[in-house]
Amino acid sequence: MNARVVAIEALERRLGYAFHDRLLLERALTHASVGDGAAKPGLDNERLEFLGDRVLGLLTAERLIALDPVASEGDLAPRLNALVNRQTCARVARAIGLGPALRLSGAETRTGGRDKDSILGNACEALIAALYQDAGLDNTRRIFLDIWRDEFDALSAPRPKDAKTQLQEWAQARGRPLPSYAVVGRDGPEHAPVFTVEVTVEGHGRAQGQGSSRQTAEKSAAQSMIDRALMDRAGVDREGSK
Fold first, then answer.
1. What is the average pLDDT across 200-211?
2. Residue 96, Cα to own-chain centre: how many angstroms?
């Protein structure tokens, strides 16, 4: 059996849905490069991608509001953007095995088109649109909630605190004033500067860090201070265990 036919069957099993309109599914899986980009308008997945982007936005916004009924628009907007951007759609496409099911030109296939974020992301949106047209909104919602579950889980997982936040909390826990940062050097050309920043914590000395921006250098300096504090603490613990 043709490998792509097998891939399409596997895709439908993963979705838990078999398309009634096979031509609609084929269109969702057809990249514009097929026929050297000379395919007639509407025979590739670009129009479906346009629709799928809107359907995906609706379903994502709907779910975010359900998960956090009191969140403001300002809180919801960046979450929505994180869940519908190209990279996220490409990750979902890989998870459901969309790449092997795509219909690409020979040139795109040879250059790794089945694993390109742009192609996978657009095809994923087209697939959402095809589901919406073939299965209706309720079934599309069910499938969306299934295949996007990991993305929602990752979004709600606690994120590690950056070094500046960690250092601030460390200083406050010891009754010290907030760390202070100062730029003590800048080298390199204008288009690629290197900043050197020094951080001071009262009673715990200074530490330096470098980076291509002041903010990056501040984080590097904070991490240096944290690392030094951990080393000092380890030394105390070793002495105490003797």
1. 92
2. 16
